[in-house]
Amino acid sequence: MILLSPGPVNVSARVRAALQRPDLCHRESEFADLMQGIRRKLVQAFVPGAEADYTAVLLTGSGSAAVEAAVLSSLPNGKRALVINNGAYGERLASIVGVHRLGVAEFKLDWGTRPDPEKLRLALRQHPEVHVVAMVHHETTTGLINPVKDMAEVADSLNRVFVLDSVSGLGGEELDVAGPHLYMVAGTAHDCLQGAPGVSFVLVRKGFMERMKAYPKRSWYLHLPHYYEDAEKGSSPVTPAVQVFYAFDEALNELLEEGVPTRIQRYKNAAAMIRKKMDELEMKPVLPAELQSNSLTAYHLPDGVTYQMLHDKLKERGYVIYPGQGLLDGKIFRVANMGALTEQQIDGFLTAFQGTIRTIAAR
Ligand SMILES: Cc1ncc(COP(=O)(O)O)c(C=O)c1O
After folding, report:
1. Is 3 in the pocket of ligand 1 (CB under 6 A)?
2. Which CATH number fits domain 259-361: 3.40.50.1000, 3.90.1150.10, 3.50.50.60, 3.40.50.2020?
3. In angstroms, what is the span from residue 280 Cα to ligand 1's centroid?
4. Is ligand 1 within 6 A of the CB of residue 167?
5. How far apart (Å, rounded) are the C-alpha atoms in residues 69 and 53?
6. Is any ligand 1 atom within 6 A of the Cβ of residue 146?
7. Threshold 0.90, pTM exceeds
């Protein structure tokens, strides 16, 4: 089955084979070597040139675990987080801070609208209690890329900590982590990094990790300094998903062999192929071209076509598309181009899509 979903994604045969490596106890030195290799490769891939300033902390769990761990660990007593919310994952960030009563009024925008850095400046001046600004990089709800650099620079200039959910961005989009002083970036193995689901991570500025050690522990399972201190000793406070770590390590080997810029270009090319064909078929994108990511395109469902109908007919042909969420449920469909997909596979999907749309129209 070809997955056009924004995670999990199709993985290479090499990554799948890694899932079958021999059983291993995480208290053994082989596991410590595996974990340290993954942490080193993450920093090498995403903070080139500033490797000494960042560290990576691994968590067994999905992307939300990494996002929640980053936010919960980042707040000293009495301080608050401001969430920029322009999609379902911004909304999830807002509910994470809401559940723990750590937020202030959200910076809320219509889904598909980019935030204005000057409005952030104003909001931060009005809210001295805000210590952390949290935002999504690639808002997978619509495929929108948020202006990370501009927003992070405003936060940094006002001495705030910028935390980024780049679960569906890292590996698919350009991202300068060190330049605009991103304090923490949450990511996962199973999107543009082409690993298996089950392991996620946070890239953290080392100086900030030291500061976080003095912050209150708001969750036992998701307290980042706890994982960091153990990881530095080659250990993990909980039983990690060992086989998924193997696969992630192999996926990172592939990423470093391909090169992050080449991976990004491959995704751009795949998205361009999809957009060209969809345009010929008169599908209407949800976002204008300048806001779109490299790895997902959202389209309005054509008149008379339900998501279920489109999904089921495509699945019969071996392709899995993705539905709209929340407000957009039943109104749009999404086509992601993350994962170990070849041009031929994308082409095969587009041919199947054309056939499916014609079959539905001829009913
Ligand atoms: C931007 C973003 N953040 C967070 C998540 C949550 O990740 P998970 O479903 O792995 O918990 C997703 C999932 O697609 C996402 O796209």
Report:
1. no
2. 3.90.1150.10
3. 31
4. yes
5. 20
6. no
7. yes
